[in-house]
Amino acid sequence: MPNRDSAQARRLGYEQMQTALGRFAVGRSTGVSPVPNRDSAQARRLGYEQMQTALTCANLPNPVTAWVMQRIPRLPGYELFQYLGGGPLTAVYAGRDCATDELCAVKVLRDDWEDQPTAVKLLQREARAGLKVRDPRLVRLLHAHVTRAPHFLVMELLPGESLRRRLQREYRLGLPDALWVARQTAEAVAALHRAGFLHGDVKPDNVRLVRDGAAVLIDLGFAHRPGENAVFLREGYILGTPDYLAPELCLSRPEADLSSDLFSLGVMLFEMLTGQLPYPPGSLNQTFRRHGCDPPADIRRLAGPLPGSLVRLVERLLARRPEERPRAGAVVRQLIAQEIAALRRRAG
């Protein structure tokens, strides 16, 4: 066994983890097709052994710190393997359902938030949206334990990488890939909107690329119905990621609308095409002021030649007034048209 602190060990562990996840992955129509057959006991046993070997070699990288071991909580019915990431309120782990022997992702409320009504309420709202809305482009929630401690959610575990990681590696995407990812994300947003929910945090970190670039929108931690966040917003909570927040959420009296998700999608599409945000990064106050008062950067200057219809779509998504933004279903249709046009240009 190589030294666990060496780069070789980390690389070996990560590769083994990826192989294990490919064999163990929870099935979905847009997910990875594991080899051998994921339903065979042999495949599950092989994946489990590889998972254990990987975890002894190296920790998975996560957004908080690289290769750091976290305290693994104990939950009824689930065996947790490894910390994958998280935020101030929750931590996400790779785990196994002890009843079915299937791999899963488990989002756990952190210990210091277990007795905080606001944190519990947000997790319950995430469970409500995840259990109600089913769509191939949206992460699948399998189980919710949110009425008593320990509070946690169980989701499918998706192999692949985040759109954020791909952008960090490639800076920006080619037009066909950017349209493909944006269209699939818009389909997930449209499914949520049809059920009366906002996602609340559309951004590259929350888009998982799981198979040949197929995109799945994850993390329903800020999902809510319009108006439900009013109390939290009045108390000064910032629910979302500032660089992707719509202008109406940057005001002194913020109020979310379904179209707030479309603004966030517009920021993400702009970023995929240019490698940059439409507004310069800055402090929280600077970001809010720019989103509320300044026009976005000219995408043509940063991305080079683009179809005029696509430029107009991005401009409408980034419109300051919510009523000027298109609805999610219309965005899906326009992005499909853009994809078809891009394929024809490539073939011609």
Descriptive account of the structure:
This protein has two domains: 7-155, Phosphorylase Kinase, domain 1; 161-347, Transferase(Phosphotransferase), domain 1, CATH 1.10.510.10. It has 348 residues and is of the alpha+beta class. The radius of gyration is 21 Å and the shape is globular. A hairpin with a 2-residue loop joins strand 7 and strand 8 (214-217). It has a five-stranded antiparallel sheet, covered by helices on one side. It has a three-stranded antiparallel sheet with strand order 6-7-8. It is built from eleven helices and eight strands. Mean pLDDT is 82; it is low at 1-69.
Labels describing this entry:
348 residues; alpha+beta; Phosphorylase Kinase, domain 1; Transferase(Phosphotransferase), domain 1; 2 domains; three-stranded antiparallel beta sheet; 11 helices; 8 strands; disordered N terminus
Provide a quick synopsis of the model.
This protein is α+β, with helices and mostly antiparallel strands. Helices cover 42% and strands 13% of the residues.
Write the layout of secondary structure elements.
Elements: H1 7-24, H2 41-57, E1 78-86, E2 90-97, E3 103-109, H3 117-132, E4 141-145, E5 152-155, E6 161-162, H4 163-170, H5 175-194, E7 207-211, E8 214-217, H6 230-234, H7 259-274, H8 284-293, H9 299-303, H10 308-317, H11 328-347
Antiparallel strand pairs: 1-2, 2-3, 3-5, 4-5, 6-7, 7-8
